[in-house]
Amino acid sequence: MKVLKLYGHKKNNGGIVNFQNGLEVHNTDSSFTYYHYRTGSVNHSKWHNFKVIRFADQLLSWLFFAFYLFWLNPDTIEINSSLVPKAFKRDRIYAKIARLVKPNSRLVLFNHGWNYDFKNYLFNKNKNSVTEYFDTFDNIIVLAETFKKQIEELGVFTEKIKVITTGINLKDFLNVKIGFDKDKQFFNILFLSRIEKAKGVIEFIESLPLVLKSHNIITYHIAGTGSFLETTKNHPIVLSNGQYFKFHGYVRGKEKIKLLKSADVFVFPSYGEGCPVSVLEALAVGLPIIYTEVGALPDILKNNINGIKVEKHSSKEIAESIISMLNDETLRVKISKENRKYSTNFDLALIHKKLETIYTT
Questions:
Q1: Quick check: 16 and 80 in contact, CB under 8 A?
Q2: 135 and 276: one domain?
Q3: In terms of domains, do 112 and 231 share one?
Q4: Which residues in 200-345 belong to E strands, given as ranges?
Q5: DSSP secondary structure string, 135-203?
Q6: Same structural domain for residues 226 and 325?
Q7: What is the pLDDT of residue 177?
């Protein structure tokens, strides 16, 4: 069976690309044959900084896609997308081309998340267009039960909507040893995500002054890149407390695992999510997680079992949760062991098998 997957350039940063690149490890053990078709811009290309180049590239991509489908003749076509303005407009056209050129191929939408403002606009003001979009597909994959319920409310056939989380290659974490220093006085707090306002990075920074009242031998580690990075670095709290902050930039592979392993607490105060891989990686190394209940996280994490939940936009709750976690070594150890064991549910080998079941049923 031939499976054609549409997603971004394989060297692009981002959750969808990292997830698909991770799945490729398991393709060699499959009876399926997988192909990739690039959608969107090439982030590392200087030419794609020009709007006219991006526009021309997109037009050519849609045109070539039709010919590529004729040539490849795939059994299944999977479009990896998110319900955000740019991706919705772009991928809706790919879906129409696929339906027109290969009406008998299975067409699958893997929706990795959405912008809530845009989702509310579509669901309330432009319901017909989004319903028509979802109805185009034979199967729809979403990352959380809450996403499934909201699509069902549009009248989309329930049976074709499947919930599958993202995952991680657990073998990358097999040699990671978890140790606990009972006399530890120095703590590392980790924020690992795209550096955007909506990821809660400002609330993370603003939690520091409160934490310092209880623990002044501490480092706030911020890893990632994004449009809000310079704003973050120039925040007054960062400028006046630079000795407590360390910026790592974009990390991957062994460097990322090393950073995760060195941390004591993982903080993820996002305003909205799909199913963030960084949270699953934090589980795999046994990190207690301070998190907001957004996207798939209510399905995955349980308060006081995998970490501590906080309200969105609350630096005070983040600070109080960090302090509670650092003060209670017994709780940290208990959560750490639970998270390490629990992470086996998110092995990409299992996710890969679930996806192949969808492609054939």
A1: yes
A2: no
A3: no
A4: 218-223, 245-249, 265-268, 289-292, 307-310
A5: HT-SEEEESSHHHHHHHHTTT--GGGEEE----B-GGGGTTPPP---TT---EEEEEES---GGGTHHH
A6: yes
A7: 66
Residues 121 and 181 in one domain: no
Q: For residues 195 and 107, state if they share a domain.
A: no
Residue 356 lies in a domain: no
CA distance 311 to 319: 12
pTM of the model: 0.87
Domain of residue 116 covers: 2-163
- Is the same domain home to 8 and 85? yes
Q: How does pLDDT run across 235-248, given as a tens digit for each residue?
A: 999 999 999 999 99
Residue 239: name the closest of 189, 216, 205 by CA: 205
CA distance 72 to 76: 11
Instruction: From 140, 139, 135, 141, select the one nearest 155 (Cα to Cα).
Output: 135
Domain match, 188 and 332 both? yes
CB 15 within 8 A of CB 277: yes
| Residue 297: inside a domain | yes
What is the number of structural domains in the chain? Answer: 2
Distances (CA, A) of 78 to 35, 141, 156, 334: 10, 10, 18, 40
Residue 156 is which amino acid?
A: V
CB 204 within 8 A of CB 268: no
CB atoms within 10 A of CB 292: 24
User: How far, in Å, CA of 94 to CA of 353, rounded?
Assistant: 26
Which stretches of the chain drop beneath a pLDDT of 70?
A: 177-184
Residue 208: which CATH number? Answer: 3.40.50.2000
Tell me what pLDDT residue 180 has.
57
Whether 217 and 142 map to the same domain: the answer is no
Q: What is the DSSP string of 29-83?
A: GSSSEEEEEE-S--TT-GGGGSHHHHHHHHHHHHHHHHHHHHHH--SEEEEEEEE
